[in-house]
Amino acid sequence: MKTLGNPKDKEEIVRRVQTVQPRSSRRWGKMSAHQMVCHLSDSYRMFMSEKKVAPAAVPLPQGVMKWLALWAPVPWPHGFKAVPELDQQIGGTSPVEFEADKRELLQLLERFARQPRDFQPQPHPHFGPLTDNEWMRLGYLHPDHHLRQFGV
Length: 152
Hints:
Elements: H1 7-19, H2 33-47, H3 62-71, H4 98-113, H5 132-149
């Protein structure tokens, strides 16, 4: 299973982020490529406790949601609503300059994956507390989902 704890998997995500362009077309959803870059940056900020996010209601128990999201061998469904703090139309970081925002995403990803950590992660709004292994898995799966959204 892919994870940011594996250098090859991390490099794959970095390479894919580098190929995203401002005019990359989405296959589903409403975000632009630039909004997606800012959304991913906000998610890493949330993971590293730099962006506070309120717990969110989920349709299943947190443990079940966490297992399905992290370990079930199926792609994530389309249309799962982001928490307002990570939604670029509501409370997420607004896009400014594409290349600068993309560089910031890559810096956040590198910091998130670095060991030892220089941050204490907060509980995930949908899944609750996560282990290091679960954070590294989520740190891979979330950008993978959105990069596939843009055909990358």
